[in-house]
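Support case: user asked for a sample of complex input and structure output to validate their parser. Sending the pair below.
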Amino acid sequence: AQSVTQLGSHVSVSEGALVLLRCNYSSSVPPYLFWYVQYPNQGLQLLLKYTSAATLVKGINGFEAEFKKSETSFHLTKPSAHMSDAAEYFCAVSDQNTDKLIFGTGTRLQVFP
Amino acid sequence: NAGVTQTPKFRILKIGQSMTLQCTQDMNHNYMYWYRQDPGMGLKLIYYSVGAGITDKGEVPNGYNVSRSTTEDFPLRLELAAPSQTSVYFCASSHSYEQFFGPGTRLTVL
C-alpha cells in the first residue's frame, strides 16, 4: 500500500527566506510523486511532478523538489519566499498503473513580512 | 476551455435530505474523481471513474453514489445526508497522471 507523510502541518517563514516543506513516501513499486498547492477557497493546482525522469524537478512559481530514493523523500523547496506563496501544500503519490493519488494531510505555509 | 466545473458552490442540507453535486469537464479526460476534504485530513477519495459507464469505490464511499453516463459528467449523489458528510467536495479529472481540480462545493449538513 502506498502512503505519504508530510512532516509539519504548519510552517512559517519570513519573506525572502528559504521554504522547505517535507514529504516522505511509502511505496512497494516505483512511485510517481506530486506537489499540489491550494489557495484559500480554491481547488488544488499542480506545482510539479516526478514521473521517473530527472530526480530534480522544477515547477511553477520558482518551486522545485528532489526525488531521493534512498531517503524515500520528495521535499519541496523555494530559495526565497514571497507573500503570495502563503497557501496549503499537498504531497501525493501514485503508482505507474493508475492515475489515482494518495494525498498527505497537507502543510499550511505562512509567510511573514 | 472551462476545465472542471462544479455546482453548487455552497449548500446547506438538513439531516436526511438528498442532493446531487454536479461535476463537468470539457477536456475529454477518461479519468474522473470525487474527493472530500476535511480540516487536517487531506483529501480522501470517495469514488472514481476510468470512463463512461465504469465507476469504482475509493477510500470513503459509504453514504455516496455516483454515475458516469458521459465522458463529461460525473455527478455525486448523497441519499440521506448526515452531519458526518459536512465537508468540502472536490471533483477532478486527469490525463497523464496530472489531476485537474474543480473549485469545490462546500456542504454543511445540520
